[in-house]
Each structure stands twice: as structure tokens, then as C-alpha cells.
Design brief:
The structure holds two protein chains of two kinds. Helices cover 0% and strands 51% of the residues of chain A. Chain A has no helices and eleven strands. In chain A, the strands form two sheets. In chain A, strands 2, 4, 5, 6, 9, 10 and 11 form a seven-stranded mixed β-sheet that branches. Chain A has a four-stranded antiparallel β-sheet with strand order 1-3-8-7, with no helix packed on it. The mean pLDDT of chain A is 94. Chain B starts with 9 loop residues before the first strand and ends with a strand. By secondary structure, chain B is mainly beta. In chain B, strands 1, 3, 4, 8, 9 and 10 form a six-stranded mixed β-sheet that branches. A four-stranded antiparallel β-sheet of chain B has the order 2-7-6-5, with no helix packed on it. Classes of the chains: A mainly beta, B mainly beta. The A-B interface holds A 33, 35, 39-45, 48, 58, 90, 92, 97-107 and B 1, 3, 5-8, 31-32, 34, 36, 41-46, 49, 89, 91-99, 101-104.
Chain lengths: 113, 111
């Protein structure tokens, strides 16, 4: 069955370190998204991609970057981790363009100490 | 699906009751609406969606109602079960925009 997987499931890092969260989907979807989820804020869009070599900033993109070198993967990099980036991160993918049903991964719990 | 501070709105029901979870959206140009269920420690799971050319859509034990006049969306769950306990999110989008998520409502089902 097609799926979307995130790794690691849990990560603890220190302030100032570079961290990369992985996202891999086997749906062959063009669109991929990264969200962070914090209590009181719901799901907020960080970055998204509509295809290979395409990346776009979302609502809360500062301090994050993504790259899309193939259809299956959209890694999320925190250039210099900050305590404010402690959160649960979800990757998602969709088939269509723009607002369409998203398929979510299981999430990565990131703690920045 | 509005939240107050750090606490999610919570709906508590008895097993077997019908549940209604409400959501307000703000973008009058939105034409696609979707509900997700999120269990503790898991990613959001798709429940049901609806486009703006409809005002009602039914799935298995779930119904989504859309009132575009007042920009309101609701999710009805029939014969609620303990396994329905989760946080429920609505989301909307217009044209080619990305989905905008509400802050969620927690549903607690007691046996």
C-alpha cells in the first residue's frame, strides 16, 4: 500500500544545531507539505512543493528550508534550531493542485533544548 | 473549530449519542472543505470532504453540512463510539490556495 513516512519519530537536539527531518511518500503525489502543530495554534504551514525543484513558503517559514530533488522526498531543515521550534512536525502529500485532500504522515516530535 | 488560549473546545457525549462538531471559516472565496480526525500520537486522518456546490454530504456514520451564507461547517457523527474520541479539525481552501486548518475540537466519548 502507498504511504507517507516520517523519520525520526522523536528527536532531541540543542539550540543552534542544524536538524533535518525526513519525509518520504510512495503515493507518487506531486504536492508535498510540511506543517507544525502546537497547542492553541492548530496546524500551520511551513513550506510546500508542487513538484520537483519547486518550493514555496508557508505561513511560518522563517528558520526552515526545504528542497525537492525527486517526487518522493521533501526533507525539512532547521538551519539553526531554536527553542521556539520545539513542536510536532507533520508531512503531508496530495495529488491535485492547491486545496485537495492531504494524506499525513505520523509526525516527528522535535524538542530543542 | 475556534480555540480559546491553550485549551481546545471539548465536546463530551455518551456512547450511542449523535455528535455535532462545528466549525466557522472566514474566507468567503473558499470552495473546498474537509474534516480530519486526529488520535493521540498520530497524524490527521481524512474523514469527509465537500465542495461548495453542495450543502450536504454523507459518509459512513458521518455527515458534513455546509452553510455558505454564514460560513459554517459542521460534522455530524451518528451513534458515537468510544473509538471516535479524538481531536477533529476542519479545513478550507479556495481556488489553488493551500488548506487553512481550524484549531480543532476534542471529542470525548464515554461508555
Amino acid at each position: 500500500d502507498a504511504e507517507i513516512t516520517q523519520s525520526p519519530r522523536h528527536k532531541i537536539t540543542e539550540t543552534g544545531r542544524q536538524v533535518t527531518l525526513a519525509c518520504h511518500q510512495t503515493w507518487n503525489h506531486n504536492n508535498m507539505f510540511w506543517y507544525r502543530q502546537d497547542l492553541g495554534h492548530g496546524l500551520r504551514l511551513i513550506h510546500y512543493s508542487y513538484g520537483v525543484h519547486d518550493t514555496n513558503k508557508g505561513e511560518v517559514s522563517d528558520g526552515y528550508s526545504v528542497s525537492r530533488s525527486n517526487t518522493e522526498d521533501l526533507p525539512l531543515t532547521l538551519e539553526s534550531a531554536a527553542s521556539s521550534q520545539t513542536s510536532v512536525y507533520f508531512c503531508a502529500s496530495s495529488e491535485g493542485t492547491g486545496g485537495e485532500k492531504l494524506f499525513f504522515g505520523s509526525g516527528t516530535q522535535l524538542s530543542v533544548l | 473549530g475556534e480555540s480559546v488560549g491553550l485549551h481546545l473546545p471539548t465536546l463530551s457525549v455518551q456512547e450511542g449519542d449523535n455528535s455535532i462538531i462545528n466549525c466557522a471559516y472566514s474566507n468567503s472565496a473558499s470552495d473546498y472543505f474537509i474534516w480530519y480526525k486526529q488520535e493521540s500520537g498520530k497524524g490527521p486522518q481524512f474523514i469527509i470532504d465537500i465542495r461548495s456546490n453542495m450543502d450536504k454530504r454523507q459518509g459512513q456514520r458521518v455527515t458534513v453540512l455546509l452553510n455558505k451564507t454564514v460560513k459554517h461547517l459542521s460534522l455530524q457523527i451518528a451513534a458515537t463510539q468510544p473509538g471516535d474520541s479524538a481531536v477533529y479539525f476542519c479545513a478550507d481552501s479556495g481556488g489553488y490556495s493551500t488548506l487553512t486548518f481550524g484549531k480543532g475540537t476534542m471529542l470525548l466519548v464515554s461508555p
